[in-house]
Amino acid sequence: MTKTRNAARASGVVATVSIAALLVAGCTRDSSAGGPGADDSASPGITDDSISIGISSPLSGATAGPGSCTIAGLDSYIEAKNAAGGFEFGDGKTRQVDFTYLDDVYDPAKAVSNFRQLLNDNMFAYVGALGTPTNAAVMPIAEEEEVPQVLLTTGARTFSSDQDAHPWTTGFVPTYATEGRAFGELLANANQPLTVATLAQNDDFGQSYLDGLNEAIEGSQVKIVASATYEPTDTTLDAQVTELAASKADVLMSAVSVTPLQVGVLTKAQSLGWLPRIFLPSNTSTPGTILQPGGAAAYPAVYTPSFSKNPNSPAFANDEDVKAYNDAFQKYGSKIATTYTPHCAWSYAEGAVLDQAFQGMKEPTREAFMTSLKSISGFQAPLLLDGITVDTTTKDDAAISTVQLVQYDGQAAFKPVSAY
Amino acid sequence: MATTTAPRSTTGTASSATARWKGIAAVGVLAVALVVAPLVSSPYINYQLSSIAVFAVAILGLNIVMGYTGQVSLGQSAFLGLGAYIAAYGILHGWPGPLTLLLCAVVPAVVGMLVALAAARLRGLALAMITLALPIVGVPLARRFDEFTGGSQGQVVSWLRAPESIGLANDQWRYYVVVLIAVVAFVLARNLVRGRIGRSFAIVKENEAVALSMGVSPYRTKVLAFTIASLLGGVSGFMYLAIVQYTSPETLVFATSINLVAAMVIGGSASIVGTVLGAVYYVLVPVLAGQVNSSRTALISGAVLLAVLFLLPAGLVSLPRRLARLRSSRGRPPQPPAHPTTSDEAAQPASAPPAATTDQHS
Amino acid sequence: MSYFIQVVVDGLSNGAIYAAIALAIVLVYRATGLINFAQGGMAVTATFVAYALTRVGVPVLLALVVAVVFGFLLGALLERGVMRHFEGGDPDTAVVATIALLVVLSGLSAYFFGYEPHPFPSLFPNRTIEVLGVFVSLRSIGTITVLLVVMIALQLLFRSTKLGLAMRAVADNPRSSALSGLPVSRLLMIGWGLAAALGAIAGVLVAPQLFISPGMLDFVLVYALASAILGGLDSPIGAVVAAAFIGVVENLAGAYLDFIGDDLKIAVPFIAVIVILVVRPQGLFGRKVTVRV
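^ Those are the sequences you sent over. The predicted structure of the assembly is below.
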């Protein structure tokens, strides 16, 4: 007997909850994003004095460190510019940027949910999100709804390699393959027989480094003599390093994206008496958190591709861009990210690229934004190394497509590489 | 809602008839709400409602094995992921939708049954361990067999567009598809747990030795419960692909299993309605936490979870009963709060959880 | 040959990490009869206390002592303030409560220290010694030594002390323990406190290698659970042996079985655990439990 009544009560609860949810949402299909604008041809999310930008990155969980940085740097640029009066647009108006960020915990379903939510709240464009699976899940919806999903902080090729097929999506940072290729070229140009051991994350991140390396060393005297992979969830890579050390290779490419594991690789190899020249990816080569704890000074050379200035490096302490970044980050970004990863600097530079795109935007539409964004070339964004420029006009590469190899100086900074 | 405050012992025919009519009315309202909702809601709301349907089916499977049968399962995400991968493979190879759905149900069910045939002799933590191994091993497997799974980049599958002739938008069409599947799954599950099989689930949960003495094989019952749970997990994977249009190894990570278990308990163990409430919780709490402060979602979700457990140890489904109890105790001298060691629970047999919920102990 | 031994030694030092957490799981299981997801969260929180202290110049050993005391108080407090509410209820609800505690604790750690991993100073010198062509780090040797001491202490606690026996009785059957006059609630509180204190030791031992972050133990916890369960959940020695087994088997499989490779090596110990459990449900060192009607 209680059964029926309880069920009745509970279905009442369900009905109430669902109706309440609809009422709370309070939006009918007419106001849905992607539809035609109300009075003029402006896209959703842009008015005469404001424009809304959204992002969903991991803000909790294992990838929250880099995830928060993809938001903190961008937020610093945007809020500093807002405070200084706003962004100037190509249509002659000045607008404040309304920046909304959400947490997706690196879960594709949550990223899709967040993207839909941002669209529902009239987001004009989706900018700078971190994560390959999360962005891959969002890409088809961005295409379907014709919403810009641009300047993504992921080096996966998918997002940049075919912009005719995916016209609403672009990557920002150099692809991982670009980094691997830069290293392969250094080795190939040495013109001597060299042996290489590779350690790569078992996903597109690791695979792209290997692809780039392989492309560059094809036909040269450089040989890969040992390779190992790992899962990001592994607790140590001692076994892999032991296996690779047995090859006694001249060079180790350690495409590892997890900070403690990368430090473990550096300590383990030298503890086994193996001292190869080492190549590290740009996102796990910060001196303070990786090279110094890992005792990287023991190796004959540690190379890393770089395209941005490290704002914490004494070498750039008097740099104007770095000063501006540090002021803005202190004021705004530090509320979002507590620890520096290079993504903080990258997403700050990304803010400047966005600014550039706004300046070239003749009409308040998403189409005009994409046209303007895709016609930037030779732009020296703040915090980028001298000689590295933004070029969005290529149809098959990310906005930044070149890197400089630098070499660890044994202290807290890098110096340029001359040759192997 | 006046009758809800009546003491539980009143079971006159008149009040039960009223209750039945109320039940039918509530179901009717719910049905109308389900049909009308997508027509008036934005694509975002439709996505959230569809997500609730997806995870409701996954939690329903979990509830059958954990809530009704009392067997721990920490591997439900593996079946969700398996279903999503089968669906992706089928759609990309041009298999008809209904056939794909069928395979999404059958293949995970067979896998679940095979695992259960080995594991169902175990109990408690040993069983938890085996189910936990499924997502742990599943993730690297999904990366390894990238010809079938797309590897770590996952697979985008653009499908299930609304037929031109119907005049619905894609989000509405997908909503109707997943909600229809969910409703069918729930109706079947409801009949199952209220029938002979459901009684054997309850007996096995209560005491396996008693089950044996009554001619119910605990082993076979547990294998059956696991098989059904895996089947529903696979079906929810099909639905997942229908709304997310993407699958990757992230779909089946262990953390998802843990969150599903939490959502099941929060909704209400061994309760059909509780399952739906659990799914609502699973989908909405992260969204709400993000609206409060997206930098602190973990802290907020954890605090909410703890708070709900404190206030409603038997799940959200016990809210009406809890309110009724609060209301009926008002005016009388304050009763001791429902503490595990108070006398009214001590009178129950030791093995019976005091968190006895709605549907099961009727 | 020296390669083989090196692979085994590396496996043992991985196993030491799993064992550290597995011992804490065994302790809390022995004390409360619960699977406790909050174990990792309590260990990380206590380790963060040690981290904060070392940052202001406190020596690691002293920081460890403070962390252990803090861990004990934290565990006791959480039992008293949170878990007591769920004791005697549906065990699923209690397990989900420990999940909630895990989420809250790591959220709190992240609130104060962020999600990025930070280097953590080691109790032992960061050097490696070479024995017959095999390299062993002093850190691993130190970790294993501490673990063995803890393991023996736990074994003694449970087998030979009044407290240990009483805790075991409470975990087995709280109701009849209460009837026979044991202070059940205080014993449960002590059990949680000890488990969290042990978690602090484990955390400080493994943090130099894993780096301290709120998620430091998330995945280790899975291995540790496997070790604890394979070891029989009941036996500190069993947990340590099982953890060593898992670490070594995993490494050997990765090194010698080409079709397994580095990606699937995790599957090998898990499948081994499943096979062993199916054959011997009480685990390697567990007592056989008979079911009463």
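The CA atoms of residues 71 and 197 of chain C lie 4 Å apart. The first helix of chain C runs from residue 2 to 32.

Shout if you want it in another format.
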